[in-house]
């Protein structure tokens, strides 16, 4: 399968030509959306879902921000920074919705800056160190493939606010997945060294796939994307051996706490500061 065919296949149904920073646009995705929790929707469950998805995005965005000034090329630095901004925008909307419906009235800063690592519910794949560029692109491929499939289903959620957030996110995530797929193919089908590193990255990511398939039936769809990309890259499909535990229940790696300390340090040192 040619590289171009892989990119075109992954882009089917997501033909928006825009490539940069959907999250920095000026259109309000929630304009005119009824914010009342619909009858039959459990507010606590809705808030918990929003928080988990926001935590995934926030932690992923923080890891992507670490590539600033460190990416192999300036263009990739800009691309990764903009992908991080997209995810940060998703996190803000989701935290805001959680605060609306959980009865606490908390704002997005309270969720992002004033919770400890054990209170976060992100998948552990998001919190792992960046490693080399191959690992970061493989992780982005896995994460964006899963999140895109998940958000596509959430566009039909009974809560109109979550559905609107998901609809906006689908456009962003389609580009994230395409960007990552291009790089995985390029690295896997490149030099002997880039192939080795990308193969190793797939093996490192494989144990964390299990956490991604706990809600909605997206496993087959995500695996199909990974198989298509790895075949085009001349890479073996990673062996799936899930690790025990889950970030969804607050069981994290030792890497999350220092990451959050960096993220939250200024806010906690100056909790009453304003812009």
Automatic annotation (TrEMBL):
UniProt KW Manganese keyword: no
A Pfam family it matches: PaaA_PaaC
Top EC class for this record: oxidoreductase
Matching InterPro entries: Aromatic_CoA_ox/epox, Ferritin-like, Ferritin-like_SF, PaaA_PaaC, PaaC
E.C. number(s) listed in UniProt: 1.14.13.149
Keyword Oxidoreductase in annotation: yes
Keywords assigned: Oxidoreductase
Molecular function GO terms recorded: phenylacetyl-CoA 1,2-epoxidase activity
Name of the protein in question: Phenylacetate-CoA oxygenase subunit PaaC
Natural source organism: Streptomyces violaceus
Gene label: paaC
């Amino acid at each position: 399968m040619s590289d171009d065919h892989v990119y075109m296949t992954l882009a089917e149904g997501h033909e928006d030509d825009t490539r940069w920073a959907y999250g920095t646009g000026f259109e309000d995705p929630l304009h005119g959306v009824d914010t009342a929790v619909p009858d039959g929707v459990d507010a606590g469950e809705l808030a918990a879902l929003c928080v988990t998805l926001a935590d995934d995005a926030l932690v992923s965005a923080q890891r992507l921000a670490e590539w600033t000034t460190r990416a192999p090329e300036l263009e990739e630095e800009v691309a990764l920074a903009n992908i991080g901004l997209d995810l940060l925008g998703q996190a803000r909307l989701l935290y805001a919705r959680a605060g609306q419906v959980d009865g606490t009235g908390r704002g997005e800063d309270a969720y992002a800056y004033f919770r400890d690592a054990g209170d976060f519910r992100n998948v552990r794949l998001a919190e792992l160190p960046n490693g080399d560029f191959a690992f970061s692109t493989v992780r982005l491929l896995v994460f964006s493939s899963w999140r895109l499939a998940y958000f596509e289903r959430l566009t039909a959620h009974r809560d109109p606010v979550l559905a609107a957030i998901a609809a906006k996110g689908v456009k962003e995530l389609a580009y994230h997945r395409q960007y990552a797929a291009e790089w995985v193919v390029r690295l896997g089908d490149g030099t002997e060294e880039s192939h080795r590193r990308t193969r190793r990255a797939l093996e490192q990511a494989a144990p964390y796939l299990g956490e991604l398939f706990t809600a909605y039936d997206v496993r087959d769809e995500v695996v199909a994307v990974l198989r298509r990309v790895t075949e085009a890259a001349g890479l073996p499909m990673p062996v799936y051996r899930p690790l025990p535990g889950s970030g969804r229940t607050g069981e994290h790696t030792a890497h999350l706490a220092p990451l959050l300390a960096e993220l939250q340090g200024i806010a906690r040192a100056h909790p009453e500061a304003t812009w």
